[in-house]
Automatic annotation (TrEMBL):
Keyword Membrane listed: yes
Localization of this protein: Golgi apparatus membrane; Membrane
Main localization of the protein described in the UniProt heading: Golgi
GO cellular component term, pick one: trans-Golgi network
GO BP, one annotated term: endoplasmic reticulum to Golgi vesicle-mediated transport
Annotated InterPro entries: Yip1/4-like (IPR045231), Yip1_dom (IPR006977)
Topology within the bilayer: Multi-pass membrane protein
Name of this chain's protein: Protein YIP
Domain Yip1: 99-240
Transmembrane parts of this sequence: 107-124, 131-151, 163-186, 193-213, 225-243
Amino acid sequence: MSFYNQGASNGGFYQPSSQFAFPQGSMSFQSQPSNAGSGNDGMTVSPDPLPVGILNALSTKGFPHEPPLLEEIGINFDHIITKTKIAFNPVNSKGALSDEILSDSDLAGPLIFFLLFGLFLLLAGRVHFGYIYGVALFGTVSLHGLSKFMSNNESSSPTKLQFFNTASILGYCFLPLCFLSLIGIFCSLDNKVGYFLGVIFVSWSTLSSSAFLNSLLQLHGARALIAYPLMIYYSVFALMAIFV
């Protein structure tokens, strides 16, 4: 009843009495703009919407800051070209063997090289796809375990040897043997000339792969030691290309 009496005495407008009034400073409301996900002016910036339409749906357009699809799945064409060049010229490759290249575990190039090797053998009348991938898998597992034992654990290198790093190195350095199988399409390699070419291409692959692993494992004066099992590994593939 006191509410209505006070409201009536004030011209019909209710004014709370002192016993119901909030004390000053007891409750305050402040609104501050949120800067999360916004620019410098405090306003939220939303990404540009994707274009609509049938033609845009069939295109490869995406968000402006979205990385390319090949980069998301780990295929880097710059690394593929760089590692292929190193496999071609392992003597002058010390400057190109950066930590980023050594830690790359790309397998796109090795798969292409193994397919080319099997295709060239097929054109020469030899079907060895099962042997190729079987020897490649068994040899990669064996050489990876051996390389882990030989690695310098006390080194301060930021790169660490992983299985796919070993597979990538062995696969890229397999490229010279593809030329050996290509020569086998046009002429027989089961002669002295073929044996000589086999030694050259096996030595080429061994020199390339040992340069990679020597830099990755931080070996000092042990390149010949790691090159010996690599030479045996690549010699098996050379025997596939030479003998019928």
